[in-house]
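Good day; I would like, with your permission, to put a structural problem before you. What I wish to show you is a protein chain and, alongside it, a tokenised description of its three-dimensional fold. Thank you for your consideration; the sequence and its tokens are set out here:
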Amino acid sequence: MAKKSVARDADADDPLATLSYEAKESRLDEILVRLDNSDTPMDELASEAREAAALIMAMHATLKATRQEITTVFEELERHKEAIAEDAAHDDT
């Protein structure tokens, strides 16, 4: 099976592509705290909201890709387990 990294699937032109999921989550938390505390100057509000939305979408894409990769791994493991069981059954005959 060829392994592919979720990070490598991201667009190279996307500045968020270089951030880990945890770094995105941390940045999103920072933005939300600033927005909640009204610390963001009015002229930066739209920009921060846009960045927060981009972070949320990027995090969702990472979760979706990771879920699919984990599902694939478990499906492969199940097929391998079935093959082992079949081999054992043939060895017993």
In short: The first helix runs from residue 6 to 9.
